[in-house]
């Protein structure tokens, strides 16, 4: 079956699954998994969480129906395992240590398959497995930390899925194109339930499932020789925001494992931006960084270096935006 047709079918399967499942899932979640606002929340109305379980199930269904091979099955297993951990947390609230242990075991198994196919010497193989496992755990939790305003993570997964699908079509790589298209379509189908008036949140089921899907696709790209800028561009803003927030909290002597609301995107809400404005702005920055990252595919080193600098400048501007936007407001309040 031609790769483009397989990608479209996978996208259709995942989107159809989410569209059909969400209206059934939401009433059940209202009784089993309500996210009650607290001082760290960006929402003010109790809202069911765990709606992202439908995206994870759609991704697994699309993979099992339309993709073949060890990597595809590993992708499906990764999404299923992490989404199950997240859904259990949405429903019952798992201890942080228990979640981390389960994530670690799942990540080592996934990394073992991805890296084990390279035929590396044992010592290098072991180091590679550990590095990829740490990457998977780190990005899944970064994605979860960033899922705090309406539509933001589904929008970023939509852009990320499209970016990886395009890389797959350019290579060509059937798995990358098909998995990316499914991630994009499932995320797009979820947005109407979450982007404007949030009737349901992704929850940990969705943020873990989508987070590991994107992390696996990024690792797959790097392992298969796609330039680092193109491979990581869809994840750049989330990585930058998480790293910037973490170093700032460490320097301030804060307890880094304690819940907070000081990410850049949360600070943009605090200076008066709506959830939708934050989501559209961050998505636009991510899309621009993806386009700039694609310059690394041209083989033109000067163009690549210039695009890298512009992408870095966009991310730095985003990270400093709350301070720049907050000053006029603070001065106005002081004057009033």
What does this structure look like?
With 336 residues, the protein is mainly α. The chain is 75% helix and 1% strand. It is built from 13 helices and two strands; from the N terminus they run H-E-E-H-H-H-H-H-H-H-H-H-H-H-H. Strands 1-2 form a two-stranded antiparallel ribbon. Helix 3 (70-92) packs antiparallel against helix 4, helix 3 runs antiparallel to helix 8 and helix 6 (152-170) runs parallel beside helix 12 (275-293). The longest helix has 35 residues, at 301-335. It is globular, with a radius of gyration of 20 Å. The chain starts with a helix and ends with a helix.
> How many beta-strand runs?
2
Helical residue percent?
over 70%
Radius of gyration over C-alpha positions, nearest whole angstrom: 20 Å
Structural class: mainly alpha
Average pLDDT metric? 92
- Characterize the overall form: globular
Keywords:
336 residues; mainly alpha; 13 helices; 1% strand; disordered C terminus
Write the layout of secondary structure elements.
Blueprint: H1 3-32, E1 34-35, E2 47-48, H2 53-66, H3 70-92, H4 96-116, H5 122-146, H6 152-170, H7 174-190, H8 203-223, H9 228-232, H10 236-251, H11 264-270, H12 275-293, H13 301-335
Antiparallel strand pairs: 1-2
Helix pairs in contact: 1-2, 1-7, 2-3, 2-7, 2-8, 3-4, 3-8, 4-5, 5-8, 5-10, 6-7, 6-8, 6-12, 7-8, 10-13, 11-13, 12-13
Brief rundown of the structure:
The protein is mostly helical and about 325 residues long. The chain is built from 13 helices and 2 strands; from the N terminus they run H-E-E-H-H-H-H-H-H-H-H-H-H-H-H.
């Amino acid at each position: 079956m031609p790769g483009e047709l397989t990608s479209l079918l996978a996208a259709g399967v995942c989107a159809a699954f989410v569209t059909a499942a969400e209206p059934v899932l939401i009433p059940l979640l209202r009784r089993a998994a309500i996210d009650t606002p607290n001082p760290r929340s960006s929402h003010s109305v109790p809202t069911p969480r765990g709606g992202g379980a439908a995206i994870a199930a759609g991704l697994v269904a699309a993979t099992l129906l339309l993709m073949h091979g060890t990597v595809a099955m590993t992708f499906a297993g990764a999404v299923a395992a992490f989404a199950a951990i997240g859904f259990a947390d949405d429903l019952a609230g798992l201890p942080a240590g228990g979640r981390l242990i389960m994530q670690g075991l799942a990540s080592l198994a996934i990394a073992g398959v991805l890296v084990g196919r390279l035929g590396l010497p044992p010592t290098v193989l072991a180091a590679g497995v550990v590095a990829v496992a740490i990457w998977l755990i780190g990005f899944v939790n970064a994605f979860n930390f960033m899922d705090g305003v309406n539509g933001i993570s589904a929008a970023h997964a939509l852009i990320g899925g499209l970016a990886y699908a395009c890389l797959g079509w350019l290579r060509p790589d059937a798995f990358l194109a098909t998995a990316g298209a499914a991630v994009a379509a499932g995320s797009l189908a979820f947005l109407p339930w979450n982007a404007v008036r949030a009737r349901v949140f992704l929850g940990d089921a969705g943020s873990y499932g989508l987070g590991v899907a994107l992390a696996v696709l990024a690792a797959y790209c790097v392992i298969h020789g796609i330039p680092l800028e193109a491979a990581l561009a869809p994840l750049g803003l989330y990585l930058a925001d998480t790293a910037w927030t973490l170093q700032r909290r460490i320097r301030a002597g804060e307890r880094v494992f304690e819940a907070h609301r000081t990410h850049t995107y949360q600070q943009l809400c605090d200076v008066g931006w709506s959830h939708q404005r934050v989501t559209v702005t961050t998505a636009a920055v991510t899309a621009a960084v993806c386009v700039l990252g694609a310059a690394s595919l041209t083989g033109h080193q000067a163009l690549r270096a210039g695009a890298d600098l512009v992408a870095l400048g966009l991310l730095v501007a985003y990270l400093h935006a709350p301070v720049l936007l907050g000053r006029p407001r603070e001065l106005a309040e002081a004057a009033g």
